[in-house]
Amino acid sequence: MQGSEPARLYVPGRIYKTRIYMKRASPNMKMKKRRQLISLLVLVLCGTVALRAQSGNEILRPPKGAKVAIVVFEDLECPDCARAAPLVEEASKTYKIPVVRYDFPLPQHLWSFDAAVQARYFGSKSPALGVEFREYIFSHQQEITGANPLDETGQKQRLRAASEKFAQAHKLALPFVVDPQNKFANAVRADRDIGTRIGIQHTPTLYVVNNSRTGRPFIEVVDRSQLFQLIDQMISEAGS
User: Coil, strand or helix: which one is 238?
Assistant: First the structure.
C-alpha cells in the first residue's frame, strides 16, 4: 500500500534499536503545572495554620472552674524560663488565677527532660511540691549545668544530687528509679507533643487564657512587662 513502511524481516540474534520520541512540554503546560503546585502548597500551609488554630482553641483554656489562667510551656534547663517563673508566680497570686504548666524540654538541653520527670514525681506527692521543685531547679540551673555544657553525665549526676537534697529537705526518700513504668516520662512527652501541635518553638511561651466562647480565648504574652495588663484585658473579656 502506498505510504506504508515496508515490512521488516526479523533476524534472530540481531540487536534492534528502538527510538523513543518524547513530546516536550510547552511553556504554557509548564506554567500551568507550576501554578497547580503553588496552589497545593498554599492549601497545605493554610490547612496547617487552621489546624494549629483549632488545636490552640481546644488546648489553651483555663482549668474547670476558672475564668482566666496563665498557661506556660517551660523547660527546666532554660535560663529565660527561670527568669520568667517569679513573674508568673507573682501574677498568679495577685489575681488569684491558676497556672497551667506544660513541659517542653528542648532537644539541645541535656538534663531538662530528666528534671521534668522528677518534677512529675514530686508533683505526684502534692501539686504544690511539684511547683516548689521546679522553682528549686530554676534557682540551681547553673550549678547543675556546671562549667562544661557538654558534660551530660556530670550534669545528670548533679541533677540527681540536687533532687536528693530537695527530697531530704522535705523528709522524702528519692527512689533510685523514680519512674519505673515510664508514667512520668510519657506525661512529659505528651506535653511536648501538645506544644509541637500548636506550634510552640521556644521556651518560655506564655499565654493568658479565658473561658470566652465568642471572643479571643487566649493571647500570647510576647512582652512579659505587659503580663498584668493582658490579664486585666482577658478578665474583662471572660465569660460569665
Answer: coil
C-alpha cell recorded at residue 42:
498554599
- Map grid coordinates 540527681 to a residue: 160
C-alpha–C-alpha distance, residues 193 and 97, integer Å:
25
- In the chain, alpha helices (H): 27-59, 79-95, 112-125, 127-139, 141-145, 152-169, 183-197, 227-237
CATH superfamily, region 62-237: Glutaredoxin (3.40.30.10)
Domain spans of the chain, in order of start: 62-237
Q: Give, for all 240 residues of the chain, the pLDDT tens digit.
A: 445 555 555 555 555 555 555 556 566 666 666 666 565 554 444 444 433 444 556 789 999 999 999 999 999 999 999 999 999 999 999 999 999 999 999 999 999 999 999 999 999 999 999 999 999 999 999 999 999 999 999 999 999 999 999 999 999 999 999 999 999 999 999 999 999 999 999 999 999 999 988 878 999 999 999 999 999 999 999 976
pTM check: above 0.85: no
Cα distance between residue 168 and residue 183, in whole Å: 23
Grid coordinates in use for 95? 489575681
Instruction: Give the span between the Cα atoms of 194 and 238, in whole angstroms.
Output: 24
